[in-house]
């Protein structure tokens, strides 16, 4: 980064530190449009239990923003003065997750709630230390608000007093329909480059405008996406694909220079076509349109693994699409493609960012989709509903209908069959599956071997021959 930009970031950090003062702006009941029935009873109950045990608690983030805009929140995040181990002790179905950002994920009355602790902005000096790798310094409600990404996402809501708490001017930005970072955009994007993607997503989803200073910093720092963890980028990409506005979101990414760094095609160029490396958006267009049609037509979220597989198939080599489609390939090429898929598909999925728990289901989905298309080419319409990944395979086929050149009648039959098909338990980063093959205890290999060694040592000491 140029020295002038480093000095600008340092001075911006100093201005932010000086701004952490003053009282919050509070709107009481009747001064805002949030209705009590918009708040899920489980979120209220979680806050109440935390308060009954001597901790403070607020609903924060997108839920507060959406309620103020008259939307129904899809989830509720809670922030509290309790530390993660203290939260876990209060709730039965709770587990601590995360490493960079430790929080408690709990199931309560059928709702999945994320509960985090008030955090402070860690002290940093210099450009190299701005990137947040650990975010577990605890602080006050004010400090927690100032360490968040955008002003419209930093509002708090007290479900007991029905009050909105604003430390950062988020209410004004919400009224102006403006997306603005809390800290100077250069600092905010240097701390977490993924915030650039989130700013564009909020613009497309909410119909808001981006702050001019944010746009300038975004276009200048787009290349910093390479500093973000690849798996986190893939996780965010899955959200963009299933938000219902994928065409607009990816168009904004392309206009602001974020699309190529996000896809990281050059880093894994052997997996993609030349056209994708040069200009990926035209290749993605038909697929993104189908994604948005699916979301508006079906009214249900697309499995994240399926959405990411479709994106990769849209950009991947023509041999992969031909293999899925069941085209007759020359025998040497067919052998090469099959060997390539068997050897490189898991590597490709892992390198590009699929979470570990998604790779095996992804391969099952690809195998089921190939089988369905092969049966269709042979005129066989029956299929086994017990085949792993059958429902997700149909979803993938429907999303790739234009790329695979499928007729409407076949796609309609797939849509009609889907309600009766089983759902593949695709794993996500919150629910790692314990190993069960040859290991009923759920221990990983190293722990199992250590337990065996301990048992052997105990056994040798207690045998009569050794006595």
What are the salient characteristics of this protein?
467 residues; alpha+beta; eight-stranded mixed sheet; two-stranded parallel sheet; 52% helix; 8% strand; disordered C terminus
How would you explain this protein's 3D organization?
The structure is a single chain. With 467 residues, the chain is α+β, with helices and mostly antiparallel strands. The chain has a domain at 3-188: Beta Polymerase, domain 2, CATH 3.30.460.10. Helix content is 52%, strand content 8%. It is built from 22 helices and 10 strands. The strands form 2 sheets. The chain has an 8-stranded mixed β-sheet. β4 (94-97) and β5 form a beta hairpin. α8 (194-206) packs parallel to α10 and α18 (356-377) crosses α19 (390-399). The longest helix is centred in the C-terminal third of the chain and has 22 residues, at 331-352. The model is unreliable at 5-21, 332-337, 427-445 and 458-467 (pLDDT under 50).
What does the largest sheet look like? 8 strands, mixed
Helix content: 40-55%
From the alpha carbons, calculate the radius of gyration and give it in angstroms.
25 Å
Indicate the mean pLDDT.
Answer: 78
In terms of per-residue confidence, which ranges show pLDDT below 50 for 5 or more consecutive residues?
5-21, 332-337, 427-445, 458-467
Which strand order do you get reading across the main beta sheet? 1-8-7-2-3-6-5-4
CATH level-two architecture of the domain at 3-188: 2-Layer Sandwich
- Any idea what the shape is? globular
Distance between the termini: 70 Å
**CATH homologous superfamily classification of the domain at 3-188:** Beta Polymerase, domain 2
Could you give the count of β-strands?
Answer: 10
CATH topology assignment of the domain at 3-188: Beta Polymerase, domain 2
